[in-house]
Specification:
By secondary structure, the chain is an alpha+beta fold. 59% of the residues lie in helices and 12% in strands. Mean pLDDT is 77; it is low at 348-365.
Length: 365
Amino acid sequence: MRKNGWIWIAAGWFLVVRVSEYHALRIDLGHALTWEGSLRYTAVELGFWFIMTPVIACWAGKFPLERPALVKNVAVLLLLNVATELLYSSYRVKLHHFVYPDFVPRSFWRQSQAYLIDNSVIVAWFFWAIVGIHLAIKAARKFQQREQELVKAQLEMLKGQLQPHFLFNTLNSISWLMREDVEAADNMMASLGELLRATLSISASEEVPLRRELNMLELYLGIEHARFQDRLRVLVKADPETLDCNVPCLLLQPIVENAVRHGIARLDRPGLVEVRAACVGTELSISVLDDGPGISTESAGREGIGLGNTRARLEKHYGEMQSLRYTNRNEGGLIVEIRLPLRVHLAGNENGDGSRLRETANVNR
């Protein structure tokens, strides 16, 4: 809730108390209660605190109760509290006849003294309540900001783990390819440079449209295709409504890398990696399938850097509103399914990425 929301909740409770006091005062003095009188009293009280609440909050921000100026700022706020009480008593005296038209009028000074004495405690209570609420909200925001910075730092660390892992594997592929086809290795180096530029320009805490994520995945698959040639086939099926949905950057690359390295690379025949994306209710469902040997019973409980890192990043981004599951397929191979909250990227087709991916993408290699 915003800062002003909490302050006005406190103001509402304050008015309830003051209106109750108004009713008690009228009953004690034997005066009749009227709706008109209650509305006048409420309007006068609300008018004063409507103006003073943001002013007091501003004072609390200007003179924070923090070291090293704690003593000085307490003294300043105490003086401002007294000034507020004097201002309140003068304000109420000016409008006394408006609120209590049937009361016997008094002189300005006598009426001021009466208001000052009768209301000093409750005015001070409300003054320091606003100061306390302001400090509590400020502390909560500072804590939230630190939490966000911590999560961002952890996401950057996770991304930093992914990039060397991917780079090491790719350089191994380039080293292998140099013995077979120097030109293909040179093209792979160029693709690697383009992919690294794309990934380094995005913060680990940033979400990107699925459209852009698939385009970066295409760069990676271009590198892998240079090594595996016709042994690697890729099929991407993304429903049109999913392309502008937000996903964490570098979500798919480590999962597809696992499918290629631990699935297709172990086959003595051409293999298929399939990426699917669909909206399911309020969730975005993304699946990566391969027709490799699948995962053995012994290694089922162990996750490598790719899957473990991706799971940790999803938890940091979405908490319990996400899931990552993987299991062997009945027809052979592995399926990894990710569920995310459905969030549409407001900017739409940014940077013209749509030119590289049709509304329903089907890429075969």
